[in-house]
Write a structure and sequence with these properties.
- This is Transmembrane protein.
- By secondary structure, this protein is α+β, with helices and mostly antiparallel strands.
- Among the domains are: 240 residues, no CATH class; 64 residues, no CATH class.
- Helix content is 35%, strand content 30%.
- The protein contains 12 helices and 13 strands.
- Strands 1, 3, 4, 5, 6, 8, 9, 10, 11, 12 and 13 form an 11-stranded mixed sheet that branches.
- α2 runs antiparallel to α6 and α6 crosses α8.
- The radius of gyration is 45 Å and the shape is elongated.
Length: 456
């Protein structure tokens, strides 16, 4: 029947919450809980520091990208150090062909720009790549490779690779590899038999600059690298190679505090993974190979949104919530054990004070070590815990000592009643739930005390 009534009480949806106070606190607090809390705060502080570093480095930034058509006059304008284009020839065994003074072949670069169906081309002389001071491969390769003369790029500042959907306004950058021929101005070519022998079954290699997008790079989100391609050359044919690259744009939105937003645009070209490698015989035995680099009519647009301070705080808050949930399963049982120790100690002190045995101390106090070692202490702990669970209420346990102190102080202030008489009045009304006396003094017995003597 009691079990039924207990289940019936569980259905009450309008029960009043009992808030206990322990040493003036709403919750029971211990040194162990304080230590765990300090460890948690240290871990959160260190995590906040790491998240701030990630924010400054651009990690975990959100990224959106889209494909779009290349607009008119859009493209990459480059200088001597922004774009590197090199060409070289090796024999069948991969050995570099000795081409001192261009006696075997010559390399000429050109830049053509078409505007409103009018084409203008500039031919650019080549120089050995080891003379321009850019390191993109080993020294041997640079000595036998040919690059655009940097003086030309410095004089002309508007070299821009552009693409077009309808092929109206666009530009190309190319290279011509020719057999050496004696002229009135140049007569240092090797014999034709040797030239044809050297180039009869050779391999063409060429290198050009591309950019790789990486949103987590510091500063510029594009990393520059060199693409190296090879192609086989055949006698009495002309090699034609067309390399397509894609124009790319990136906009970084840096707004760490929601107060000072800043956007920074970047431009680059990315390898489109499209190479047209063909060969033909046009009757021009002087031209060995031709390489064309151009942009496609599409572009890639990236939008980078870096983390803000509010995002970092949200991550720290979520991290704290997860850690708090995990620690609750570990710390809560220990806190409950410490609370039981506290209540048992308080109960024993109250019993001693009511029995006037304050000088008697327990030989084996209830501690964690004694619970593990001593079976009697374990049995005592279980008995005391059951007693506390049965009699736990504001009036009987938690507020008992506080109310006792206040009552004794108020009575002593208003009367000269000795403490023994007060204790006798309290012991006349024991607790119905346990052997622990409760703080209950009937009004009529309080009135019998000489409280008004002081006023007289």
């Amino acid at each position: 029947m009691k079990h039924f009534y207990r289940l019936l009480n569980e259905l009450d949806l309008f029960g009043c919450e009992i808030k206990w106070r322990i040493d003036g606190q709403q919750k029971f607090k211990s040194k162990f809980g304080s230590f765990v809390s300090l460890c948690l705060f240290v871990l959160l502080t260190y995590s906040f520091y790491l998240f701030i570093l990630e924010m400054n480095e651009g990690k975990n930034a959100s990224l959106n990208s889209t494909d779009a058509l290349l607009q008119e006059n859009q493209g990459l304008t480059f200088g001597p150090t922004d774009f590197l284009f090199s060409v070289g020839v090796v024999d069948t065994y991969g050995n570099y062909i000795q081409n001192d003074m261009n006696q075997i072949f010559s390399v000429v670069f050109y830049y053509c720009e078409q505007i409103d169906l009018k084409t203008n081309c500039d031919f650019i002389p080549s120089v050995p790549c080891d003379t321009i001071g850019q390191s993109f491969s080993d020294d041997v390769t640079q000595r036998h490779s040919y690059c655009i003369n940097p003086e030309y790029l410095e004089q002309r500042q508007n070299i821009t690779l552009k693409g077009s959907l309808r092929m109206r306004n666009f530009s190309i950058l190319g290279s011509l590899i020719r057999f050496c021929e004696n002229t009135t101005d140049f007569s240092y070519c090797a014999p034709k038999e040797e030239i044809y022998k050297q180039l009869a079954s050779s391999n063409l290699f060429y290198t050009y600059t591309s950019y790789s997008f990486n949103k987590e790079l510091e500063g510029n989100p594009y990393a520059k690298f060199q693409n190296t391609e090879t192609s086989v050359l055949y006698s009495q044919t002309t090699k034609h190679i067309k390399v397509q690259q894609q124009f790319s744009q990136a906009t970084t939105n840096i707004n760490p505090f929601y107060f000072f937003p800043s956007e920074q645009p970047y431009s680059a070209i990315e390898y489109d993974q499209t190479i047209y490698d063909t060969q033909y015989n046009d009757g021009n035995s002087n031209l060995l190979a031709e390489i064309i680099i151009q942009l496609t009519h599409t572009q890639q647009i990236y939008y980078i949104q870096y983390q803000t301070l509010m995002d970092v705080l949200a991550k720290v808050g979520g991290f704290y919530t997860v850690l708090k949930m995990i620690l609750d399963f570990i710390v809560l049982p220990i806190q409950q054990l410490l609370l039981n120790f506290y209540l048992i100690k308080l109960l024993e002190q109250f019993k001693c004070s009511m029995n006037d045995n304050t000088k008697i101390k327990q030989s084996n106090p209830i501690t964690v070590i004694n619970l593990i070692k001593d079976g009697k202490i374990r049995q005592q702990y279980q008995d005391e815990s059951k007693q506390i669970q049965k009699t736990m209420s504001i009036d009987e346990i938690l507020h008992m000592q506080l109310k006792l102190d206040k009552l004794l102080k108020s009575i002593q202030d208003k009367s000269k009643c000795p403490n023994d008489q007060i204790k006798e009045l309290m012991e006349e009304n024991p607790s119905p739930h346990s052997q622990t006396p409760i703080l209950s003094i009937q009004e009529q017995k309080i009135e019998n005390l000489p409280l008004n003597n002081s006023s007289k």
